[in-house]
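Amino Acid Chain and Its Fold in Token Form
===========================================
Scope: a single protein chain, as residues and as a discrete description of its fold.
Amino acid sequence: labelled as such and written in the usual single-letter residue code.
Position: the record begins directly beneath this header, with no further notes in between.
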Amino acid sequence: MDRLTRKELKTDKFATEVSHTVEFLEEHRRQAMIIGAVVIVALIASVGFYYYSKGQRAKRQEALRQATRIYQSQVGPESNPYIVFFPTAEAKNEAIRKAFGDIVEKYPGSDEADIAMFYLGVLASDNGNYDEAIKRFQHVIKEGDDAYASQAALSLAWVYAGQGNVAEGEKLLRGLIEKPTVLVSKEQATIALARMLAPTQPEEARKLLEPLRAERSAVSRAAITALSEISSPNPR
């Protein structure tokens, strides 16, 4: 009503419209009440879904936080109440698999599930289960957000290289160089590719690294370190 001036409130047209509206509602009051009830139910449902979704997200994030805490745990006798300890490496690995596996099973399609799948791939790679690692990383690349997919692609490239399949690893890294993300920068992918190519293509590796020497300090230091490794008798 604050949008209407006093003059407009006094016009016959406005009075007529109000009269027609009152008559319509009187004649169709039950219909109006039903429509109103439907709208209210829909509104309550949408609000409920919002808070339900928010609650579910909080549960997923807490599950991921706890799983990450287990991943970062130590092996040995408990000596710090703020750090999780396991008696053996086998017990720790089993706990990691269960924690992240539960997230993947309970919350499929979520960001947290993609992150959990990535951690499972890293665990498999660390334990020499390369076929499982490849499967996990490929899933994240295919189903995950671009940022998580890029991290999985970086890890998968190294798994391929470790198996002697440098061509596939190079393909993944060049893809990351062309399409960097917030988790894997162009410079990071370039340095990784140079390190991968260094043993067999040292000149190509140097060509990739030289332009990075003038970049910001962190990138420059990493590039110079990689160049020194290429120049050494036993490059990594």
